[in-house]
Amino acid sequence: MVILPRASVLRYSFHMSDKRLLLRHALATLAYRTSRALENAPLNFANFNGAGRHPVQILAHMGDLLDWALSLAQGNSTWHNSQPLSWHHEQQRFFDALAAFDAFLASSAPLYAPVDRLLQGPIADALTHTGQLAMLRRLAGSPTRGEDFYAAAVQVGQVGPIQPAPAKVI
Fold first, then answer.
1. Most distant CA pair in the chain: distance in Å?
2. What is the Cα–Cα distance from 29 to 97, expressed in whole angstroms?
3. Which of 33, 56, 122, 163 could form a disulfide with 65 if both were Cys (CB 3.0 to 4.6 A apart)?
Protein backbone atom coordinates (compact mmCIF):
# COMPACT_ATOMS: atom_id res chain seq x y z
CA MET A 1 0.00 0.00 0.00
CA VAL A 2 1.33 3.42 -0.96
CA ILE A 3 0.42 6.42 1.15
CA LEU A 4 0.63 9.64 -0.81
CA PRO A 5 1.53 12.90 0.88
CA ARG A 6 -1.36 15.33 1.15
CA ALA A 7 0.09 17.61 -1.59
CA SER A 8 -0.01 14.73 -4.09
CA VAL A 9 -3.66 14.09 -3.35
CA LEU A 10 -4.48 17.75 -3.88
CA ARG A 11 -2.54 17.82 -7.13
CA TYR A 12 -4.49 14.79 -8.34
CA SER A 13 -7.74 16.45 -7.35
CA PHE A 14 -6.88 19.56 -9.37
CA HIS A 15 -5.80 17.35 -12.28
CA MET A 16 -9.28 15.80 -12.36
CA SER A 17 -10.87 19.26 -12.35
CA ASP A 18 -8.59 20.21 -15.22
CA LYS A 19 -9.88 17.22 -17.20
CA ARG A 20 -13.46 18.26 -16.62
CA LEU A 21 -12.60 21.82 -17.68
CA LEU A 22 -10.89 20.53 -20.82
CA LEU A 23 -14.00 18.50 -21.68
CA ARG A 24 -16.09 21.67 -21.29
CA HIS A 25 -13.66 23.43 -23.65
CA ALA A 26 -14.18 20.59 -26.14
CA LEU A 27 -17.95 21.19 -25.89
CA ALA A 28 -17.43 24.91 -26.53
CA THR A 29 -15.26 24.00 -29.53
CA LEU A 30 -18.00 21.69 -30.80
CA ALA A 31 -20.55 24.51 -30.44
CA TYR A 32 -18.29 27.00 -32.23
CA ARG A 33 -17.44 24.73 -35.13
CA THR A 34 -20.98 23.42 -35.54
CA SER A 35 -22.38 26.95 -35.56
CA ARG A 36 -19.92 27.75 -38.37
CA ALA A 37 -21.01 24.69 -40.34
CA LEU A 38 -24.69 25.66 -39.95
CA GLU A 39 -24.62 29.45 -40.28
CA ASN A 40 -26.14 30.84 -43.47
CA ALA A 41 -26.95 27.36 -44.77
CA PRO A 42 -29.72 27.52 -47.36
CA LEU A 43 -33.06 26.07 -46.24
CA ASN A 44 -32.80 23.18 -48.71
CA PHE A 45 -29.46 22.11 -47.20
CA ALA A 46 -31.23 20.09 -44.48
CA ASN A 47 -32.28 17.48 -47.04
CA PHE A 48 -29.27 17.63 -49.36
CA ASN A 49 -28.76 14.14 -50.74
CA GLY A 50 -25.20 14.15 -52.03
CA ALA A 51 -23.26 11.73 -49.87
CA GLY A 52 -25.19 9.31 -47.66
CA ARG A 53 -27.21 10.69 -44.77
CA HIS A 54 -28.97 14.03 -45.12
CA PRO A 55 -27.65 16.90 -42.96
CA VAL A 56 -30.82 16.89 -40.81
CA GLN A 57 -30.22 13.18 -40.08
CA ILE A 58 -26.59 13.89 -39.15
CA LEU A 59 -27.63 16.71 -36.83
CA ALA A 60 -30.25 14.45 -35.19
CA HIS A 61 -27.51 11.86 -34.61
CA MET A 62 -25.30 14.57 -33.07
CA GLY A 63 -28.11 15.45 -30.66
CA ASP A 64 -28.41 11.76 -29.80
CA LEU A 65 -24.66 11.60 -29.12
CA LEU A 66 -24.88 14.51 -26.69
CA ASP A 67 -27.91 13.03 -24.92
CA TRP A 68 -25.98 9.77 -24.61
CA ALA A 69 -22.88 11.56 -23.28
CA LEU A 70 -24.98 13.23 -20.58
CA SER A 71 -26.58 9.92 -19.63
CA LEU A 72 -23.14 8.29 -19.38
CA ALA A 73 -21.86 11.13 -17.21
CA GLN A 74 -24.91 10.78 -14.95
CA GLY A 75 -24.40 7.03 -14.62
CA ASN A 76 -27.37 5.68 -16.59
CA SER A 77 -26.25 5.02 -20.16
CA THR A 78 -29.23 5.50 -22.48
CA TRP A 79 -29.13 5.53 -26.28
CA HIS A 80 -31.92 6.68 -28.61
CA ASN A 81 -32.05 6.80 -32.40
CA SER A 82 -34.19 9.89 -32.82
CA GLN A 83 -36.25 10.56 -35.90
CA PRO A 84 -35.13 13.92 -37.30
CA LEU A 85 -37.24 16.95 -36.50
CA SER A 86 -37.47 19.98 -38.77
CA TRP A 87 -34.12 21.60 -39.59
CA HIS A 88 -34.78 24.52 -37.25
CA HIS A 89 -35.92 22.27 -34.39
CA GLU A 90 -33.01 19.87 -34.90
CA GLN A 91 -30.55 22.76 -34.62
CA GLN A 92 -32.25 23.90 -31.42
CA ARG A 93 -32.23 20.35 -30.05
CA PHE A 94 -28.50 20.02 -30.74
CA PHE A 95 -27.60 23.23 -28.92
CA ASP A 96 -30.01 22.44 -26.06
CA ALA A 97 -28.38 19.02 -25.58
CA LEU A 98 -24.95 20.66 -25.68
CA ALA A 99 -26.02 23.20 -23.04
CA ALA A 100 -27.49 20.49 -20.80
CA PHE A 101 -24.28 18.46 -20.92
CA ASP A 102 -22.14 21.54 -20.30
CA ALA A 103 -24.33 22.59 -17.35
CA PHE A 104 -23.92 19.14 -15.82
CA LEU A 105 -20.14 19.33 -16.23
CA ALA A 106 -20.13 22.83 -14.71
CA SER A 107 -21.93 21.53 -11.63
CA SER A 108 -20.39 19.74 -8.68
CA ALA A 109 -22.29 16.55 -9.55
CA PRO A 110 -20.05 13.48 -9.70
CA LEU A 111 -19.09 12.06 -13.09
CA TYR A 112 -19.92 8.39 -13.55
CA ALA A 113 -17.93 8.05 -16.77
CA PRO A 114 -14.23 8.71 -17.37
CA VAL A 115 -13.60 12.09 -19.03
CA ASP A 116 -11.24 10.54 -21.57
CA ARG A 117 -13.95 8.07 -22.66
CA LEU A 118 -16.52 10.84 -23.01
CA LEU A 119 -14.07 12.76 -25.19
CA GLN A 120 -12.95 9.81 -27.32
CA GLY A 121 -16.49 8.52 -27.81
CA PRO A 122 -19.50 10.82 -28.19
CA ILE A 123 -17.66 14.15 -28.33
CA ALA A 124 -15.07 13.07 -30.92
CA ASP A 125 -17.88 11.48 -32.93
CA ALA A 126 -19.87 14.73 -32.87
CA LEU A 127 -16.78 16.71 -33.96
CA THR A 128 -16.34 14.29 -36.87
CA HIS A 129 -19.94 14.88 -37.91
CA THR A 130 -19.40 18.63 -37.71
CA GLY A 131 -16.69 18.23 -40.34
CA GLN A 132 -19.07 16.10 -42.35
CA LEU A 133 -21.67 18.91 -42.29
CA ALA A 134 -19.03 21.40 -43.44
CA MET A 135 -18.03 19.08 -46.29
CA LEU A 136 -21.66 18.61 -47.30
CA ARG A 137 -22.07 22.39 -47.40
CA ARG A 138 -19.34 22.53 -50.07
CA LEU A 139 -20.87 19.63 -52.02
CA ALA A 140 -24.27 21.36 -51.86
CA GLY A 141 -22.75 24.49 -53.44
CA SER A 142 -22.86 26.56 -50.25
CA PRO A 143 -19.37 26.33 -48.74
CA THR A 144 -18.53 27.68 -45.31
CA ARG A 145 -15.93 30.41 -44.86
CA GLY A 146 -12.37 29.35 -44.17
CA GLU A 147 -11.23 30.33 -40.69
CA ASP A 148 -8.20 30.04 -38.43
CA PHE A 149 -9.75 27.95 -35.64
CA TYR A 150 -6.61 28.24 -33.53
CA ALA A 151 -7.30 31.96 -33.19
CA ALA A 152 -11.05 31.47 -32.57
CA ALA A 153 -12.57 32.99 -29.43
CA VAL A 154 -13.77 29.66 -28.03
CA GLN A 155 -14.63 29.95 -24.33
CA VAL A 156 -15.78 27.40 -21.78
CA GLY A 157 -19.52 27.67 -21.22
CA GLN A 158 -20.19 29.31 -24.59
CA VAL A 159 -22.20 26.47 -26.10
CA GLY A 160 -25.15 28.16 -27.78
CA PRO A 161 -25.76 28.82 -31.47
CA ILE A 162 -24.61 32.46 -31.22
CA GLN A 163 -20.83 32.53 -31.37
CA PRO A 164 -18.22 35.28 -31.73
CA ALA A 165 -17.22 36.43 -35.19
CA PRO A 166 -14.20 34.68 -36.67
CA ALA A 167 -10.92 36.13 -35.40
CA LYS A 168 -9.20 35.45 -38.71
CA VAL A 169 -10.92 34.53 -41.96
CA ILE A 170 -8.81 32.60 -44.44
1. 63
2. 15
3. 122
What is the number of domains present in the chain?
Answer: 1
Residue 58 domain-assigned (yes or no): yes
What DSSP assignment string belongs to 67-79? HHHHHHHHT----
Question: What CATH number did the domain enclosing 44 receive?
Answer: 1.20.120.450
pTM: 0.89
Whether 159 maps to a domain, the answer reads no
Contact 70, 97 (CB under 8 A): yes
Per-residue pLDDT in tens (0 to 9) along the chain, 170 residues: 444 444 443 333 334 489 999 999 999 999 999 999 999 999 899 999 988 899 999 999 999 999 999 999 999 999 999 999 999 999 999 999 999 999 999 999 999 999 999 999 999 999 999 999 999 999 999 999 999 999 999 999 999 999 999 999 88
